[in-house]
Amino acid sequence: VTHNIPLLREIIVHPRFVSGDISTKFLPEVYPDGFKGHMLTAGERQELLATAAALYVAAQLRSQKFLGDL
């Protein structure tokens, strides 16, 4: 099953869409080479990695505590 949720997410936050400057040519004008997905900025990438690392460490600590209780 495929979906277009990432494309729709990008469209609804695009400045042209938000301002109402849209037409039936919106997609070819904004994405002339097609939609390639959301590209993370360096800051977004860093935030994602930090969040993933924190979740991993938290899971490891919970696992160690559980196994230590046996």
Q: Would you kindly provide a written description of the structure presented here, covering whatever features stand out?
A:
The chain is an all-alpha fold and 70 residues long. It folds into 2 domains: 1-39, no CATH class; 40-70. 66% of the residues lie in helices and 0% in strands. The chain contains 4 helices and no strands. It has helices at residues 5-13, 15-19, 26-30, 42-68. The longest helix is centred in the last third of the chain and has 27 residues, at 42-68. The chain is elongated. The protein starts with a helix and ends with a helix.
In a few lines, what is going on in this structure?
The protein contains four helices and no strands. The protein has 70 residues and is mostly helical.
Secondary structure class reads mainly alpha
**Structural domain count:** 2
Determine the oligomeric state from the structure: single chain
Radius of gyration: 20 Å
Catalogue the unreliable spans: none
Euclidean distance between termini CA atoms: 42 Å
Number of helices: 4
Order of helices and strands: HHHH
Estimate the helix proportion, in percent.
Answer: 55-70%
Provide mean pLDDT, rounded. Answer: 90
Helices, strands, pairings?
Elements: H1 5-13, H2 15-19, H3 26-30, H4 42-68
